[in-house]
Design brief:
single chain; 2 domains; alpha/beta; Rossmann fold; 7-stranded parallel β-sheet; globular; 366 residues
Length: 366
């Protein structure tokens, strides 16, 4: 009788089931790690009327609560029922990681996907203390960029352990098909991402108005959802941009959006990575991005896609727009590099190796 190969059990823990920078990676992660049985604990319950990343994937999901204490209690119960599993937490913060450690979870990977770890000196001291209590010496830390790793190390210092950099897997099939034709009689400029603080979207709209003054045929499309939706729509009308700026909401096939666009403008003030900038390049569409650390890391070999993240930004965007053909010529070279640097293959290989460090490739505990 052929022996049954043990299946590795991995419990994913993250905040929301709505699509976001972390959440949109979940279906890909579940698909590309072979021999693994995934389940999930989502700290917040699903929002009514919002997309759910677990809708079409075979993963058992347990939801927490809008109340942190209730969510923590439910997480502890979930951890007790899955005590033999490897837990993979995505940017949940130290409080919920501490719940896992107090429950007796011995195997955990914590993925750092953000750069804001505290607000104010008191919160910094308190969270640093909780982090030190939460981080078992047996837990592994990974970051989605060198920038997010360095910010965390600076915050938690001293930390006598390494943090692996594992870039987000961007090279999915929806991003690998060729560039579609764009409109011959107008310029289509897009933004894709969360409509939230830190994305610099009010300034994005101001710059859209400046571009429209010089290029009356330009049309602007904002894809995504978030807490600033209503405020941004009001601001669009306030500056008289309602006739050429359209809010499209969340799109399932964002790859098609990129391929039909002439340009992506992404002027975020802070990012731990920036999936959409890579996705746009993979679809053959040039990007103008703010020169923040994460964008500098992504475009380390292609600074022509960057503009200063200061008072010079408006003028720099207009100058880049004047040399759009040059940016288009740079896309092919950048795309070839990104297909390797940000591939599903590199992500799966690194994550699987980290999982194997706890369980071994056959799924047995070490």
């Amino acid at each position: 009788m052929k022996p049954i190969t043990p299946v590795r059990k991995v419990c994913l823990v993250h905040y929301s089931s709505a699509p976001g920078g972390i959440e949109v990676l979940i279906p890909t992660l579940v698909r590309i790690i072979p021999g693994t049985l995934f389940s999930a604990f989502v700290i917040r319950p699903p929002e009514k009327g919002k997309e759910n990343v677990y809708k079409d994937i075979a993963v058992d999901v347990t939801y927490g609560s809008l109340n942190n204490l209730k969510a923590a209690r439910r997480l502890r119960n979930f951890a007790r029922m899955n005590s033999d599993a490897l837990f993979h937490c995505f940017n949940t913060g130290p409080f919920f990681l501490l719940q896992l450690r107090l429950t007796g979870v011995k195997k955990a990977v914590y993925s750092i996907h953000g750069t804001l770890h505290f607000n104010g000196i008191l919160q910094k001291l308190f969270r640093k203390l909780i982090w030190r209590m939460a981080l078992s010496s047996k837990y592994r830390l990974v970051a989605n960029s060198g920038h997010s790793r360095d910010i965390f190390l600076d915050f938690i210092s001293p930390l006598n352990r390494s943090i692996d950099v594992v870039y987000n897997p961007i090279g999915s099939e929806r991003m690998l098909t060729g560039k579609e034709g764009t409109s011959a009689d107008r310029m289509n400029i897009i933004y894709a991402g969360r409509l939230a603080e830190g994305k610099n979207l009010h300034r994005w709209l101001d710059i859209a108005a400046l571009i429209h003054e010089q290029h009356s045929e330009a049309r602007f499309f904002i894809y995504g959802d978030g807490p600033l939706m209503d405020e941004l729509q009001r601001y669009t009308l306030q500056i008289g941009a309602g006739g050429y700026v359209t809010f499209e909401g969340f799109m399932h096939d964002i790859g098609e959006v990129y391929r039909k666009a002439d340009l992506m403008i992404f002027l975020s003030e802070k990012e731990s990575f920036g999936n959409v900038a890579v996705e746009s390049i993979l679809c053959g569409t040039p990007v103008i991005a703010s020169a923040i650390p994460s964008m500098k890391e992504i475009f380390i070999n292609y600074p022509q896609f960057l503009v200063p993240a200061d008072e010079r930004m408006d003028e720099a965007v207009l100058q880049k727009l004047g040399s759009l053909d040059t940016l288009r010529q740079s896309v092919n070279d950048a795309r070839e590099e990104f297909l390797v640097r940000f591939s599903m293959g590199q992500h799966a290989e690194k994550i699987e190796k980290i999982y194997d460090s706890f369980t071994g490739p056959d799924g047995r505990n070490k």
